[in-house]
Amino acid sequence: MGVSEVQQTNLTSEKAKWMYQKMAEIRRFEDQVHETFSKGVLPGFVHLYAGEEAVAVGVCAHLDDKDSITSTHRGHGHCIAKGCDLKGMMAELYGKSTGLCRGKGGSMHIADVEKGMLGANGIVGGGFPLATGAALTAKLKKSGGVAVCFFGDGANNHGTFHEGINMAAIWDLPVVFVAENNGYAEATPFEYASSCENIAERAASYGIPGETVDGKDAMAVYDAAERAVARARAGKGPSLIECKTYRNYGHFEGDAQTYKPESEKKEHLTELDAIILFRQFVLQNGLASEDDLHVVDENVKKEIEEAVSFAEESPLPEVKELTTDVYVSYKE
Amino acid sequence: MGRVITFSDALNEAMKQAMRKNEDVILLGEDVAGGAEVDHLQNEDAWGGVMGVTKGLIQEFGKDRVLDTPIAEAGYVGAAVSAAATGMRPIAELMFNDFIGSCLDEVMNQGAKLRYMFGGKAKIPLTIRTMHGAGFRAAAQHSQSLYGLFTAIPGVKVVVPSTPADAKGMLIASIEDDDLTVFFEDKTLYNMKGEVDEEYYSIPIGKADIKRQGEDLTIVAIGKQVHTALEAAEQLVKKGIETEVVDPRSLSPLDEETILQSVMKTSRLIVIDEANPRCNAATDISAMVADKGFDYLDAPIKMITAPHCPVPFSPALEDVYLPTPEKVLEVVSELIDDDSSIAM
Question: CATH number, domain at B186?
Answer without folding.
Answer: 3.40.50.970
